[in-house]
Known about the structure:
This protein is of the alpha/beta class. It folds into two domains: about 10-210, Spore Coat Polysaccharide Biosynthesis Protein SpsA, Chain A, CATH 3.90.550.10; about 220-324, no CATH class. The protein is about 45% helix and about 15% strand. It is globular, with a radius of gyration of 21 Å. Pfam families: Glycos_transf_2. One of its GO terms (molecular function) is transferase activity. Keywords: Transferase. It comes from Tropicimonas isoalkanivorans.
Amino acid sequence: MTPDRPAPTTFVSVVIPCYNAAGFVARAVESVRGQEEVETQIIAIDDGSTDGTPDVLSKLGQAVFWETGANAGACAARNRGLALADAPFTMFLDADDYIEPGTLAALVAALSEDNADIAFAPVIERTNTGDRPPRRRPRTGCTSEFVIDWITGSYIPPCGVLWRTETVRSIGGWDENLRKNQDGELVLRAAIAGAKLAVSNEGAAVYWHHDGAHRISNVVSEVKLQDSFEVLCRCRDHVAVTEEASNEIERAFSVATHDLERMAARHALDALQERIHVYRQGAGWPTFEGGTYHRIGSRLLGLKAKEKLAQFLVSIRGRKAKQS
Length: 324
């Protein structure tokens, strides 16, 4: 995408969108301040918080540029930060998350060594009670493998992604109309457009899982599921006009859309479930994807009834686990 590169540099802009993150944003900022071998520009954009986040930001010192405004959504905050970024490399670090020492330097090295547009770090998924099993990273050898892995669950959250600033600007930045899977839409849009991908095996991004409404994308809703489906439809349309189209990638879209159809059924979102079903039927995909028990149960009971049964069984196992 960008054949003429400037001389390698270790100057990185880190954009931190914040919404009611008073209990977390200082940790994110300090993790950036602690990065060695890089110069950082920290830009925190408060998205209309009501919990005192601006007060926390004001106490973090002159090393952090910050501003606040009306609530306009995470993507608007990220685009505002992108507009202010001065460095040739940019990371979008959610206020919940943080990065381990050495992460930015390793990502810059990966971008520079591979002459790449986007680099991915190792990711640790962490909670108050410990670390979750490591997530498999997407393959980056070719665009089709990357898209297949990303849409079927091997994705990297924004805290583990470093961009060439010119690359994310050249594709138009974040889509402010989306309320779910905005980061996936941005990365997939760039990859399908020809962005070169790289991987770093050093450092780590920490993707924080917690209860409550602190994380911008935490709550499942009909509009968010609709947006996730819209992202998959867009991505499939973009792939269809490239050399990456194949039976393997079509199967991946079938699996990913059926996962959303199952979620819609689970939450009794009948209109959305029907919309996804009709789309999948028009694509000529199998009615059900997944394991044998899921496919048999869905055929016998119908998808909605099968998902309700599955939820019931999960709740029983949960209660038994607490009692033991």
